[in-house]
Amino acid sequence: MKPPLALLAELTHRCPLRCPYCSNPVALTRGSAELTTQEWARVFDEAAAIGCLQVHLSGGEPTARRDIVEIVGAAHAAGLYTNLITAGVLLDAALLGRLKAAGLDHVQLSVQDADPAGAERIGGMKGAQERKESAARFVREAGLPLTLNAVVHRQNLSSLPRLVDIALAWGAARLEVAHVQYYGWALRNRDALLPTRAQLDEATRVVIAAREALRGRLVIDYVVPDYHAARPKACMGGWGSAFLAVSPSGNVLPCHAAESIDGLVFPNVRDTSLRAAWEDSAAFNRFRGTDWMPAPCRGCAHAERDWGGCRCQAFALTGDAAATDPACALSPHHGLLAEAIAEAGATTFRYREFG
Ligand code: SF4
Ligand code: FES
């Protein structure tokens, strides 16, 4: 068994923004149930001990934790490369300085739209864009590398060329253009977020042209929406293969959305070591490799390339986490995606909120 390369540490579900595309579960974890600083430090030590190289500090909004500097320090002390995934609205120059001194290696800053009104409508927070622009400046001034993360969907895809301009203006070295993936709140708001085929094709054209024009200045990553695909994504590089996540309350998960699958019981860091969770738990072993696969994945030439797609999407769309991901054209459920696209077009959405 190979070690996990990366740990997603979901430090908290608290967040000043309320994005309707959030992949957090609809039932959010309250602050009182979150792991303590010391528990996170132990998680980082155990992650490094089993071979993990990097930690993505995420949420919710990780800087909503008052102990975020101590948490970064603990991850750095464990020898992990530290990436802060943030909305940026709680960052100031002093906090950035303390985070850098504690060992922060990289910042990934989200942006919801190109113009402030659109960004504030999607994020559900007044004044957010101005704060994000300041946060980008603080990151640059601290000498930290900056990636801008633009989650794109039906409501903001027309802004994509201007989002590329923002990445340049804010000094990002990398822009991640990520189409929404439909888990948690995003699945609930799918009708408002799913792009049309024409929108997707135009976005792909914009990304290809920008990559060419900005070669050497800006790296652009592109995550496409598999609702329009004929083959699924190799989600997480395969279940229990390269990645693990720890939820705010300490559940150890093969992916950030795994708790949406009924019937799986996940180990918790409060009573299991990370090594035991990774190597021995029933939840991690349930969809490892290819032995669990039914037809048409079983024996398919792509089985060790896409690992049958995404277990969470298979469960969300078919009620069976072991089914072939409906994003695959060979799935008997592939028609569900065309139906969802045909039904999409809602103009309103529900903001993420504690229930
Ligand atoms: Fe991948 Fe399964 Fe589709 Fe084959 S049948 S391409 S393994 S999802
Ligand atoms: Fe859970 Fe794809 S998001 S397996």
TrEMBL record:
Pfam families: Radical_SAM, SPASM. Gene3D superfamilies: Aldolase class I. Its cofactor is [4Fe-4S] cluster. Its EC number is 1.21.98.4. Keywords: 4Fe-4S, Iron, Iron-sulfur, Metal-binding, Oxidoreductase, PQQ biosynthesis, S-adenosyl-L-methionine. InterPro entries: 4Fe4S-binding_SPASM_dom, Aldolase_TIM, Elp3/MiaA/NifB-like_rSAM, MoaA_NifB_PqqE_Fe-S-bd_CS, PQQ_synth_PqqE_bac, PqqE-like, Radical_SAM_PqqE_MftC-like, rSAM. It is an enzyme of class 1 (oxidoreductase). One of its GO terms (molecular function) is oxidoreductase activity. Interacts with PqqD. The interaction is necessary for activity of PqqE. Belongs to the radical SAM superfamily. PqqE family. HAMAP family: PqqE. PANTHER family: PQQA PEPTIDE CYCLASE, RADICAL SAM DOMAIN PROTEIN. This is PqqA peptide cyclase. It comes from Neoroseomonas marina. The lineage of its organism: Bacteria, Pseudomonadati, Pseudomonadota, Alphaproteobacteria, Acetobacterales.
